[in-house]
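User: Hi! Is it possible to get a structure for several chains at once, not just one? Here's what I have:
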Amino acid sequence: MASLSIVRTRADLRALVSTLRQDGKKIALVPTMGALHAGHLALIEQAKAAADGVIASIFVNPTQFAPHEDLARYPRQEAADIAQLQAIGCDGLYAPPVQELYPEGFQTRVVPGAVAARLEGAFRPHFFGGVATVVAKLFLQVDPDVAVFGEKDWQQLQVISTMVRDLDLGVEILPAPTHREADGLALSSRNAYLSEAERAIAPTLKQALDQVAGALKRAPETLATVIDQAKAELIASGFHSIDYLEACHSQTLEPWQPGDPARILAAAWLGKTRLIDNRGLD
Ligand code: PAF
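Assistant: Yes, the chains can be modeled jointly so their relative placement is included. Here is the combined structure:
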């Protein structure tokens, strides 16, 4: 197995990319914040199938966290991440320090449009600006042909696809299906925050999405009632509050109207942990 090249500076990254690019080879980037799990490894596998060389990035991006959020306690386990990337045959890891992406005097940001305004954007107004800015910078630094993003963060996927189109970034975005535990819970680095009791409750979020998707398929006129029921059941199961549970247009994220391609999205709090999930109709 070829060994994993670990780079932390733009200069070393450029050298790695030019080695991987030799003979016109295709490069894929898998941007992550680390704490890698089977969902991330599936993104890497998809990248390997789509390109000749795969670079994963690990960067816990400060600009996508508000001051009251979990930047300081976000799980960091670089040694374990490196072992997993090595075992799966990833070619490169770009794990820059903060100043490599946000040097002294940094002041320019990407401002996403309407696709970022609702749902996550309404509850975490700083979030998509931070994501779009760091992803644009990673694209410019790595210059990949393709980049793989999980459907677990469905709105993020739409924000990034829109940014790539609007700014002519020339990177093909490949969506990767959400990885789930056997009981339906979507894999997420933040699942590590859940207590045993909370972990037992967590799959209810997926059940709520399934309930709403079922209503949308069979009897769309019952949508509002079914959403209210599903929210009440989430609270009864032990979720503390629900930021949103909505059926939306799958690309614009505007409220779903008959005839729209649909996506059901949810964010809810279980203790101190905020879980998000989504699904389509099929
Ligand atoms: O989905 C994530 O892990 C992050 O939002 C991303 C895309 C790596 C940007 O920091």
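The two ends are 38 Å apart (CA to CA). Residues 31-33, 61, 64, 131, 134-135, 153, 156 surround pantoate (CB under 6 Å).

User: Great, thank you!
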